[in-house]
């Protein structure tokens, strides 16, 4: 019977906790019961979780930085910051080098004809003109042939 009254006491303390009507001592009693004697009781798991959050919140809220030891940016943070900046800079340099060297070693050939590579349209047009002129004068006799024909007519 005492166990039953103890459980009803815990239930009334829990109800008072959620109603925010408990005194500090009653709240400490509830915490002591739920995390002590009734820690293994599964009925109170959700209430223990809620109480854990409020206990941690109170502890964090009560934790204040003293004026004697204000938070400062420590040397180790500077080292970490410098290390991070150096890593980022190295990564950027590697990416730029890859981009530069892949572009520099790229063959910008726009056409290959008869084994000759052409790198610009002007160079290709010049080559076409030379080829066309070579074809025009291919059937024409050379200067030697013309001179020999002229002198051959004179000798007759």
Based on the structure, what is the oligomeric state of the protein chains?
A: single chain
Ends distance: 154 Å
Q: Helix-strand pattern, N to C?
A: HHHHEEHH
What proportion of the residues is helical, as a percent range? 55-70%
- How many helices? 6
Residue ranges: pLDDT <50 for 5 or more in a row? none
Shape field: rod-shaped
Assign the structural class, choosing from mainly alpha, mainly beta, alpha/beta, alpha+beta, or little secondary structure: mainly alpha
Strand content: under 5%
Structure summary, number of beta strands: 2
Q: Radius of gyration, Cα only, in angstroms?
A: 48 Å
Largest sheet: 2 strands, antiparallel
- Which strands sit side by side, in order, in the main sheet? 1-2
The average pLDDT is 77
Structure notes:
By secondary structure, the chain is mainly α. It is 70% helix and 4% strand. 3% of the residues are buried. Strands 1-2 form a two-stranded antiparallel sheet.
